[in-house]
């Protein structure tokens, strides 16, 4: 299978007052087309740097990022992004927020077509009837749903998410996992999800990559061998629980606390 | 509801005038010490044509200066908002420029552009009022969260597109906040030149003629007319703000 996302030997350091701060060290990640890749790791290990590299917003010091068989050197129109902050533009209605990428990517598309596409997505995430509302009139979870719609409205081949559910309460978060699962079934994107929630990574991921502490490299890759139509209940079954244990141990190692835990 | 919204400020103005009248009456001040509101109608009736002409003079030059301040201030704010080097280079200059008492600049201008009274007045209104606009636009742009840039930047949108679709509208509330300050500053600039420079025009010159002739009710009448114009222009800005940045106003509760 073709690897849609191919990160090869990426090393990156930030310049700081106290000299270079290495964040990524010879990182390799491969994500086949259509797969969902969850990336977990200790906080501050360079996960967000990874999203900016894949999006082409930054260039790595060494190594290469390839998307769709093309080397990434600048931003591409075929990428969608979602962040922990839903980044809703307050002066636009919800539907006008969702069509924003289309104004850049498909300027020739008619307004009616843009709205039709956005309405379809908003209905899928349960926001039918909220199209003309202002973002401030919606709850945090609803804003994040709209933000996901905006991230995929232009049918990107890669969806990059940087802890999109991180600021939500647990129940809302689980609701959004299921929304994400349904979106995936309906839309053909390949996804990278940065998270620090192991249950989230197992519920949504086809593979879970554990990054080591800073500077990060790939410490462990877990193949999530669960059916595609998962429900939250699956997280309480032995197979998933075992995976969570494995991931928990890997995080402990990544944090460098192998000794103190035992 | 709307009725109450209009009535409240009117009542407060009436109360203010009543208090003023009362204080003058209690102290028994003659009108060459302190005019009272009841002296003013006579002044307005006597000089109504001068008030009309001079108010117009003051108003158009203030608005012209303000318009230039908006264009220049926004441009300067953009430059400072996008480039840290420009910010470091321009801030000390701007602060220094703003700290210079503008009254001292009037004679300089009068010498530089002799006889160009309209030009000098507009220039002063502009010079005194662009600073808040430049600072607020600059801060609005430089504090734009990176995610706001990234949602369009990740699609390869140009800097100008990001500015037009995101940074500019997001900065509008701060811009209008600054504009409200600039409106009153621009009036001060206009009047400064009108009063200080010889052969001035506008309400400032009318004030000066009241002073020369010892016509105190006229001087106070000019001050009230100035206040009225200030309020008028301020609410014009509020109306524009409602149209362009009304989204920033949260519903109470």
Notes on the protein architecture:
Chain A is of the alpha/beta class. Chain A has one domain: Rossmann fold. Chain A has nine helices and ten strands. Chain A has a six-stranded mixed beta sheet with strand order 6-7-8-3-9-10, sandwiched between helices. Chain A has a four-stranded antiparallel beta sheet with strand order 2-1-4-5, with helices on one face. The longest helix of chain A has 17 residues, at about 170-185. Chain B is mainly alpha-helical and about 250 residues long. Chain B has a single domain (about 40-245), classed as MetI-like fold, CATH 1.10.3720.10. Chain B has ten helices and no strands. The longest helix of chain B is centred in the last third of the chain and has 38 residues, at about 160-195. Classes of the chains: A alpha/beta (about 260), B mainly alpha (about 250). The interface of A and B includes residues 89 and 134 of A. Chain A: GO terms for molecular function: ATP binding; ATP hydrolysis activity. Chain A: This is ABC transporter ATPase. Chain A: Belongs to the ABC transporter superfamily.
Q: Quick gist of this model?
A:
The complex is a heterodimer of chains A (262) and B (253). By secondary structure, chain A is α/β, with parallel strands linked by helices.
Chain-wise SSE layout:
The complex is a heterodimer of chains A (262) and B (253).
Chain A: E1 3-16, E2 19-32, E3 36-40, H1 47-54, E4 62-67, E5 70-71, E6 79-83, H2 94-98, H3 100-105, H4 111-124, H5 140-152, E7 158-162, H6 170-186, E8 190-194, H7 198-204, E9 207-211, E10 218-223, H8 238-254, H9 258-261
Parallel strand pairs in A: 3-8, 3-9, 6-7, 7-8
Antiparallel strand pairs in A: 1-2, 1-4, 4-5, 9-10
Chain B: H1 2-27, H2 40-46, H3 48-82, H4 84-99, H5 105-112, H6 117-142, H7 146-153, H8 159-196, H9 202-212, H10 216-245
Helix pairs in contact in B: 2-10, 3-4, 3-6, 3-8, 3-9, 3-10, 4-6, 6-8, 7-8, 8-9, 8-10, 9-10
